[in-house]
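Posting here for the record, re: tetrahydrodeoxyuridine.
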Amino acid sequence: MKKQHLGFELIIYDDENELPAFEKRLLDKAIKARKSAYAPYSNFQVGAAVLMENGEVVIGNNQENASYPSGLCAERVAVFQAGALYPGVGMLAIAVSAASNNHLVDVPAGPCGNCRQAIFEYEVKQKSPISVLLQGEKGPVFKCGSISDILPLAFGNSFLGDS
Ligand code: THU
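Prediction output follows.
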């Protein structure tokens, strides 16, 4: 028997002004996207912005539905849209901004498990990391260098063998 600790490097910026300029710009686009989220049921708005290798930025925000499970998170709206618009282009980074009508979100909200899995698919596909920037409505910004960092023991297509 052996025990192994799995860890990753989390970079914590005090606020968005500490970010390198290109990441601040990306986060600004996530914040802008958050402001047009459709979240009438949860009153929790999330915006995401994906920086593509070709310099384009693709945004998404959460889209809710009266039939709750039919809605989709901001991160998946963004990466699916990026995959649809630029099928052969790599994704470099995703920034996510979250806020609530009911309370101040001053710590970054981690992407849900389904979104981690969805982003991970593109990382595997392109064979290069997608970094993740997270912020609440205000407060610290968390950065990790790869979605794999926050999806340990991930399930990927290598388990499916040759299909
Ligand atoms: N949500 C996201 O958009 N991203 C996440 O990573 C977590 C949750 C959305 C889904 C739903 O519209 C609302 O936040 C509350 O769960």
